[in-house]
Specification:
The complex is a heterotrimer of chains A (328), B (503) and C (275). Chain B is of the alpha+beta class. Chain B has twelve helices and 20 strands.
Chain lengths: 328, 503, 275
C-alpha cells in the first residue's frame, strides 16, 4: 500500500475487499446449511400414487441425486455468471423471478423507510428538546409502544379497520397489471406502508431522541454557547454532525430491519414480494429460491452497511481523522 | 426550527392524505363496475392453489388442473360438473368386441391457440406425454395398459390395450390435448380451450382471455383472473372487499359466518377429498383386522366432523365418495360403539389396550383431528402418541420408506378405492380376493358390471377396516350473489370458468 | 436534576408488575391449566363466559389455557435465547476485547456484519435447514443476539482495560483470569443485564413473527404468534382472540423495557444514557 494514495481510498478498497469476502463466506454458509436439511425438494413435485420410477425421475430432475460438491460447484458457477439457477419446482429462472418480486418489495421498503425517517427526525427532536413537558413524555411513551408492537399485528388491525370495516383500501393482493395499474398498485401498498411506518418510526424516534439528548447535554454545546454562539448556531455547527453520526450508523441497520418488516407484512397483505417468495421456497425446500433470495438480502444488507459506514466517516468529525485504518 | 419542523410535518400530512384520497377515489379496477356488455365481464377468482408450473405431467399440482382444465386445455372427453363423461374433442368412439381396441374420431375444425389445426398426431403425442418415463402425472399408472397408439389418418386415433379397461374413456378426460410442436409448456401453453393464457405473475395472478378462434360456444365472459393467496384469511378478505368474485374452495368453515348475508351465496357441493386415519396394515397391531375395526368403532366421526366443519361435510364409511358409481352407504359396518370396540380389542388379544405412534402432518386439519382421536381412543385404553411431522417427512418416512405404524392423510382423487387392490401401496393392505375383484372390475364389459364388482370389493375392504375413513370434505364455493354459472362440485379440482356470468 | 430521584422506582415497578403477571401465567401453566391442551369440549368460537374467560377457539379449545401456554413459551424463548446469546456473546466479546490490531479489526467487522443481518432472516435460514420448531427459533434468536452482546461486551471490556486499577492489579501480580473475574466482569455486568432485559422482549417479538409466518413451532403449539395467525380468519366474529395475545406481547416487551430502564438507573445512575 503506497503512502501516496490518500487514506480514504485505502479504506474504501479494504472495505470493498472485505465486502466481497463476506459475500463469498455467506454463499458457502447458505449452501451448506441448506443441504444439511433432511428434506427432499423432489417431494413437492409428487402426489400420492407416485410410482417409484416417478420418484426417481423427480429426484433426477431436481438434482438432489448429484453429489454435494458438484451441486456447490454449479451454484458458484451460476453466481459468477450473474445467474441464480432455476427453481426446482417451477423451472422458472430464479433471478428473473427475484427481479419481478423486487419491484414490489423495494418500493414498499424504501417508501416506508423514507416516511419513517421523515417523521422520526422532527418528532425525535421534539421528544428530546421538550423531554420534560407532557407532550414530550407522551411522544416518548408512544414510541416505546410502537417498538413493542409486533408488526404483523398492526397489519391485522389495520386490515380489520380500513379494509374490512371501512372498505377504503384493499385487504391485500397486488393488481394483475402490476405497476402498469399505478393507482391500483399505490392503493395496494398503502396499508402495508402505513403498517411498517408505524412500527419503524417508533424505533427511529427513540434513536433520534437519544442522540439529540446526548448532544443537548454535551459539553461542547455548552462551551460553544458560553463562548457566545446562539443555540441555533451551536446546534448547527456541532450538534447536528455529532448527533447525525450514531443515527446514520443505526440507519443502515434500521433499513435492514425495515426490509424484514416488509417480509412479514407481505404475508399479511398477500403481496407478491421477496418475502412471500422466500417463505414459500423454505416450505418447499426449493434451494435455488432460498439461496437466491437470502443471497440478495445479504448483498443488500452488507452494501447498505458499507455505504452507511462510509457516510458516517465523512460526517463525523471525530472519525474522519482516523481514516488511516484504525478502528475508533 | 421547531416551527419549521411543524410546518413541514403539516405539509407532509396533507400531502399523504391527498395522495391516499386520490388513490382511493381513482378507478377501483377490481370492483365490478359497468362493463360494455354482460358477456365481456372480467371474472376474478380467488384460490389457494397456485400451479407450481403449467405442465400437469411435470408436477404442476392441483392448481394447474383448477386453472387450465377445460379452460385452456381440453381432452378427448370432459368430466362435467355433474360427473358425466361427455364428448369433447372426440366425436365418436368405437370399441372392438374384445375391448382391446379403441377407435376415436377427432373433431373437425379445431385450432390450437397458436393457430395450428388439431390432428390425431397431437392426440397421440399428448397421451404419450402422460405415459412417458419422465412423466410426473398422477394419472400415469391408470394408463399402464396402453400397448400402442396409431394414427391411420388425421382424424382418427386407434389405441390398443394389453388388457381391457372399462375406465379408459373416463381416464381420458384427464389427458390434455397439447400441440405436439409446443415447446416448453411449463411456462407457456398451447391448447384448444375457450381461453388462452395471457399472463402469469407467479405468486399473484394468472390471467385467461377468451380465445376468438375457439371451435365451440364462446365463453360467456371475456377475461378470467385467478388470484392466488397462501392464506385462507387473506383470500376471504379479498372476497369480502370484492377484490375477487368467487372462492373456489373454502377451507375455513368458521369464516363462513361473515358470508351469511344477501351479498354472497354459499354453495355446498360434492367433493372427492377424504380424510383418512391410515393404518400400516403390515405391522402389529394393525395387521389384525379386529384391532382396526375396534379403533374405527371407538372414534366418533360425527363429532369430529362437526368440530372441524360444523354443519358441512359428509360421513363416509369407506373410501368411496357418493359421486362414484359404486357408492353405497357402509357407515353401519363399523359403527361408533364403544362396547363393540372393547369387545373386539379383547378378542384380538388387547384387553388392556396398547400404545401406538400416530405420524400426523402439521397442516390443518390433521393436528386437530389427531388430538381428537387421541382423546377418543383413551376411552378404550389405547394410548396414542401424536407425532407431528412436515409434509416432507411424510413423503420420506411414511410414503417412501413405509416407516410408520399409523398416520393421517387426505386423499383427493375420485375412484381411488382401486388402490386397495395394490398390496404394495403404502398402506400395505393385502387381500388376494380384493385384488382379483378389482382387476376383474377393470376388465368388465359394462359400467354396471364394474360397479357390482367394485361394490363387492369395497364391502370386504370395509369389513376388514383396511383404513379408517373419517369423513368426506365438503366442497364449499362462496361467490358474490351477482355471479352465476360457476361450478359447485369439486370433482378433481376442476373449475370451469366459461359459463360464469356477472350481473 | 430533581426529577431523577422520583423517576426510577416508577418505571421499574410498572415493568415488574407487567412481567409478573405474564410470569405467573407461565409458571402456573406448568402445573395447572383451566383446560388441557387437547380438550376440545367447548363450543366453537364461543364468546367469553364463566367457563371460558376468554372464550374458545375454532376447535372448542379454551383460549385462556392456550394463552397461558403461550406465556410459558414466551418465557422459554426469552430465557433460553438470552442464555445462549449471553454465554456466546460475553465469551466472544471478552476475546475480542483483549484482541489487538488486525484481529480486533476483523472481529469487530465480523460482528458488525452479523448484527446487520436481520435476526428474522437468520431464523428463517435456520428453520429452512432444521425444519420449523421452537428449538430452531430459539437457536436462531440466540445466535443473532450473541453478536449484539459480543459487540457491546467488547466495547465495555476495552473501556475497563484502560482503567488504572487494572494496571495496578496486574502490576501486583494478579493473573488475567482472576482479573477478569474480579475486576472486569463485575464492572460490565450492570450494563449487560440491561441489554439482556431488552433482548428478552425482542426475542419474544421475533418468535411471534416466526410463528405467524408458520415457521415457528408447528401446531398444536400455542405460541402467541400462532394464536394471532389463527385468529385472523375470524377477526370479525371473534375479535378477542386477535386482540389479547397482541396486547400481551406488547406488555411483555414494554415490561422488559421498563425493567431495563429501571435497572439502568439503579445500577449506574451516573452513566450517560446511550441508546
Amino acid at each position: 500500500m503506497s503512502s501516496k494514495s490518500p487514506p480514504i481510498v485505502n479504506y474504501i478498497v479494504r472495505r470493498l475487499i472485505f465486502l466481497v469476502f463476506s459475500l463469498f463466506l455467506a454463499s458457502i454458509s447458505l449452501f451448506v446449511l441448506l443441504r444439511i436439511l433432511p428434506g427432499d425438494p423432489a417431494n413437492a413435485l409428487l402426489s400420492v400414487g407416485a410410482t417409484p420410477e416417478q420418484i426417481a425421475a423427480a429426484q433426477h430432475k431436481v438434482g438432489s441425486d448429484l453429489p454435494l460438491l458438484q451441486q456447490f460447484g454449479k451454484w458458484i458457477g451460476q453466481l459468477l455468471s450473474f445467474q441464480m439457477g432455476d427453481s426446482l419446482i417451477s423451472n422458472a429462472p430464479v433471478g428473473r423471478e427475484i427481479l419481478s418480486r423486487l419491484s414490489v418489495t423495494v418500493p414498499l421498503t424504501l417508501t416506508a423507510f423514507a416516511i419513517a425517517v421523515a417523521l422520526a427526525i422532527p418528532f425525535g427532536f421534539i421528544a428530546a428538546y421538550k423531554a420534560k413537558t407532557w407532550y414530550g413524555s407522551i411522544l416518548n411513551s408512544v414510541s416505546q409502544l410502537g417498538m413493542a408492537v409486533p408488526v404483523f399485528w398492526v397489519g391485522v388491525i389495520l386490515v380489520f379497520v380500513f379494509a374490512l370495516r371501512l372498505r377504503v383500501l384493499p385487504a391485500g393482493g397486488f393488481p394483475p397489471g402490476g405497476w402498469g395499474d399505478l393507482a391500483g398498485a399505490i392503493r395496494a401498498l398503502s396499508l402495508p406502508v402505513i403498517t411498517i411506518v408505524l412500527v419503524m418510526s417508533a424505533s427511529l424516534i427513540r434513536y433520534v431522541r437519544s442522540a439529540t439528548l446526548d448532544v443537548l447535554n454535551s459539553d461542547y454545546l455548552r462551551t460553544s454557547r458560553a463562548l457566545g454562539s446562539s443555540f441555533m448556531e451551536a446546534m448547527w455547527r456541532h450538534g447536528l454532525r455529532n448527533a447525525a453520526s450514531p443515527v446514520i450508523s443505526i440507519l443502515g441497520i434500521e433499513l435492514a430491519t425495515t426490509f424484514v418488516g416488509a417480509v412479514v407484512v407481505e404475508s399479511v397483505f398477500a403481496l407478491p414480494g421477496l418475502g412471500s417468495f422466500l417463505v414459500r421456497g423454505i416450505s418447499q425446500h426449493d434451494y435455488p429460491v432460498v439461496q437466491g433470495v437470502l443471497f440478495i438480502s445479504t448483498l443488500a444488507v452488507l452494501t447498505i452497511g458499507f455505504l452507511a459506514d462510509l457516510i458516517q466517516r465523512f460526517i463525523d468529525p471525530r472519525l474522519s481523522r482516523s481514516l488511516t485504518g484504525q478502528i475508533s | 426550527m421547531m416551527n419549521k419542523n411543524r410546518k413541514h410535518l403539516g405539509h407532509l400530512a396533507l400531502a399523504l392524505t391527498l395522495a391516499l384520497g386520490l388513490a382511493a377515489c381513482s378507478s377501483s379496477s377490481t370492483s365490478s363496475t359497468a362493463v360494455a356488455s354482460s358477456t365481456d365481464a372480467t371474472i376474478n377468482i380467488g384460490s389457494l392453489y397456485e400451479p407450481q408450473n403449467l405442465d400437469n405431467t411435470g408436477g404442476g399440482g392441483q392448481g394447474v388442473t383448477e386453472a387450465l382444465n377445460g379452460n385452456v386445455y381440453e381432452g378427448l372427453f370432459s368430466l362435467a360438473d355433474s360427473g358425466k363423461v361427455e364428448n369433447l374433442l372426440a366425436t365418436d368412439t368405437k370399441i372392438s368386441a374384445d375391448g382391446l381396441t379403441y377407435t376415436f374420431t377427432i373433431r373437425d375444425n379445431v385450432k390450437f391457440h397458436s393457430g395450428k389445426a388439431l390432428t390425431s398426431a397431437d392426440v397421440k403425442y399428448s397421451i404419450e406425454k402422460v405415459t412417458a418415463e419422465k412423466s410426473q402425472s398422477a394419472r400415469k399408472s391408470s394408463f399402464a395398459m396402453i400397448k400402442s397408439i396409431a394414427t391411420p389418418d388425421d382424424k382418427t386415433v386407434v389405441v390398443t390395450l394389453s388388457s381391457k379397461s372399462i375406465s379408459f374413456v373416463y381416464n381420458l378426460s384427464y389427458i390434455w390435448v397439447i400441440n405436439s410442436s409446443a415447446a416448453d409448456i411449463t411456462a407457456t401453453e398451447d391448447g384448444t380451450g375457450p381461453y388462452a393464457l395471457t399472463d402469469w405473475k407467479r405468486g399473484s395472478t394468472l390471467t385467461l382471455t377468451r380465445f376468438d378462434g375457439y371451435w365451440g360456444t364462446p365463453a360467456k365472459n371475456k377475461v378470467v383472473v385467478f388470484h392466488y393467496f397462501t392464506d385462507a384469511t387473506a383470500l376471504n378478505n379479498a372476497l369480502l372487499t370484492n377484490a375477487v368474485d368467487v372462492v373456489t374452495s373454502e377451507q375455513s368453515p368458521d369464516a363462513l359466518a361473515q358470508f351469511k348475508n344477501a351479498s354472497y351465496k354459499i354453495n355446498n357441493g360434492q367433493s372427492t377429498t377424504k380424510l383418512l386415519l391410515v393404518f400400516n396394515d403390515r405391522v402389529k397391531p394393525f395387521n389384525n383386522s379386529l384391532v382396526r375395526k375396534a379403533i374405527t368403532s371407538a372414534i366418533d366421526n360425527k363429532k369430529l366432523l362437526a368440530s372441524i366443519w360444523g354443519e358441512y361435510g359428509t360421513l363416509i364409511g369407506s373410501m368411496v365418495p357418493p359421486t362414484d358409481p359404486w357408492y353405497e352407504d357402509l357407515t353401519k359396518v363399523n359403527p361408533y360403539d364403544l362396547t363393540l370396540a372393547k369387545k373386539e380389542l379383547t378378542e384380538a388379544g388387547y384387553p388392556n389396550g396398547f400404545t401406538f405412534s400416530l405420524d400426523t402432518p402439521n397442516y390443518d386439519p390433521h393436528p386437530a383431528a389427531a388430538a381428537f382421536i387421541k382423546s377418543e381412543l383413551a376411552k378404550v385404553g389405547i394410548t396414542v402418541n401424536v407425532n407431528i411431522i412436515t409434509a416432507d417427512q411424510w413423503y420420506n418416512n411414511v410414503y417412501k420408506k413405509l416407516d410408520y405404524t399409523a398416520t393421517m392423510q387426505e386423499h383427493v382423487n375420485d375412484r381411488d378405492v382401486v388402490w386397495y387392490g395394490n398390496p404394495d401401496f403404502y398402506w400395505g393392505y393385502k387381500n388376494a380376493q380384493v385384488t382379483s375383484l378389482i382387476n376383474q372390475a377393470e376388465q368388465s364389459d359394462t359400467v354396471q358390471a364394474q360397479a357390482d364388482l367394485l361394490k363387492q370389493a369395497n364391502q370386504i375392504i370395509v369389513a376388514e377396516a383396511a383404513s379408517d375413513w373419517l369423513y368426506l370434505y365438503p366442497q364449499i364455493v362462496v361467490a358474490s350473489s351477482s355471479l352465476s354459472g360457476y361450478p359447485v362440485n369439486g370433482l378433481n379440482s376442476q373449475f370451469f370458468a366459461f359459463n360464469i356470468t356477472k350481473k | 436534576m430533581t426529577q431523577q430521584t422520583r423517576r426510577y422506582p416508577l418505571p421499574l415497578l410498572v415493568g415488574l408488575v407487567l412481567i409478573s403477571i405474564i410470569f405467573i401465567m407461565a409458571v402456573l401453566s406448568i402445573f395447572w391449566l383451566p383446560y388441557q391442551l387437547g380438550d376440545t369440549s367447548g363450543s366453537r368460537l364461543g364468546a367469553p363466559s364463566l367457563h371460558h374467560w376468554f372464550g374458545t377457539d375454532k376447535l372448542g379449545r379454551d383460549l385462556l389455557s392456550r394463552i397461558m401456554i403461550g406465556a410459558r413459551i414466551a418465557f422459554e424463548v426469552g430465557l433460553l435465547s438470552v442464555a445462549i446469546g449471553a454465554f456466546l456473546g460475553v465469551l466472544l466479546g471478552l476475546g475480542a476485547g483483549f484482541a489487538q490490531r488486525w484481529m480486533d479489526e476483523s472481529f469487530s467487522a465480523l460482528l458488525d456484519i452479523l448484527i446487520a443481518f436481520p435476526t428474522l432472516l437468520l431464523a428463517m435460514l435456520i428453520v429452512a435447514t432444521r425444519g420449523a420448531s421452537l428449538t430452531s427459533a430459539i437457536v436462531a434468536i440466540g445466535l443473532g443476539m450473541s453478536a449484539i452482546i459480543a459487540r457491546l461486551t467488547r466495547l465495555l471490556v476495552k473501556r475497563v482495560l484502560t482503567q488504572d486499577y487494572i494496571t495496578a492489579s496486574r502490576a501486583s501480580g494478579t493473573s488475567w483470569p482472576r482479573v477478569i473475574v474480579v475486576h472486569i466482569l463485575p464492572n460490565i455486568w450492570p450494563t449487560l443485564i440491561v441489554i439482556f432485559a431488552l433482548q428478552f422482549g425482542l426475542a419474544g417479538l421475533t418468535e411471534a413473527s416466526l410463528s405467524y409466518l408458520g415457521l415457528g413451532s408447528p401446531p398444536p403449539n400455542a405460541s402467541w404468534g400462532s394464536l394471532l395467525q389463527e385468529a385472523q380468519a375470524t377477526v370479525l366474529t371473534a375479535p378477542i382472540a386477535a386482540i389479547v395475545p397482541g396486547l400481551l406481547l406488547i406488555a411483555l416487551v414494554i415490561g422488559m423495557n421498563m425493567i431495563a430502564d429501571g435497572l439502568r438507573e439503579v445500577a449506574d445512575p451516573t452513566m450517560r444514557r446511550s441508546r
